[in-house]
Amino acid sequence: MSVLLKILNLHKCKFINTSLKRVDFQDIEFYDCVFRNIELEDANLGSALFYGTNTIKGNFSRVKFRTTNFCDQRFKNCNFENCDFTGTDFSKAVLNRVCMVYADIKSAILKSIEIISSNLNNCNLENIDMWGAKLSRVSLEKSNFSYAKLQGCIIEKSNLSYAILNDILATEAVFDETNFSDANLIRANLEDASLKRANLKYANLSYANMANVDFYKADLREANLQGADMRGVNLEQANLTGANLIGANLSNANLKIQLLKILFLEVC
C-alpha cells in the first residue's frame, strides 16, 4: 500500500533512520531538509522541489523522480538504482559515490553537475544536457548517451567502454585518460575536444567530426575512423595500429611520429 502526502512544503525537516517506502511525495517542496540513512524504495517524488537539502546514505532504488528539481543539491553514498529521472534538473548538483545503475535519466538537465567516484553503468542518458559538467572516476559502461549535449564538459579517468555516444555534441570537451574501448561514437561532434591518453581501442568513430582533436598518446588500435573529419588533429605518439582510416580527412594533422611508427612496423 502506498502513502499519499498532500502537503505543500516541508521546512527544515529531518528524516534520519527512517523508512519512507512507497510514500507519494509528488509536487512536495523540501526546504533545508536532511535525509540520512533513509529508505525510499518505490516512492514517488515526481515534480518535487529540493532547496538546500543534504542527503547522505539514502536508498532511493526504483523511486520516480520525473521532472524533479535537484538544482544545487548534494548527494553522498546514495543508491538510485533503477530510478526514473526523466526530465529531472540536476544543474550544479554534486553526486559523490552514488549508484545509479540502470537509472533512466533521459532528457534530464545536468548542466555544471559534478559527479565523483560513482557508478552509472547501463544508464539511459539519451538527449541529456550536460554542458560544463565535471565527472571524475565515474563508471558509465554500456550507458546510452545518444544525442546528448556535452559541450565543454570534463570527463576524466572514467569508464565509457561499450557506451553508445552516437550523434553527441561534445565540442571543446575534455575526455583525458578516459576509456572508450568498444564504444560507439558514430557521427559524434568532438571538434576541438581533448582525448589525451584516452583508450579508444575498437571504438567506432565513423563519420565523426574530430577536427582539431588532441589525441596525444591515445590508443586508437583497431578503431573505426572511416569517413571521419580529422583535419588538424594531433596524433603525436598515438597508436593507430589496425585502425580503419578509409575516407578520413587528415589534412593538416600532426602525423609525423605516428607515420614513422607505421613505416617501422611495415619494414619489420
Automatic annotation (TrEMBL):
Keywords of the record: Repeat
Highest taxon above the source species: Bacteria
InterPro entries: 5peptide_repeat
Descriptive protein name: Pentapeptide repeat-containing protein
Species for this entry: Sporofaciens musculi
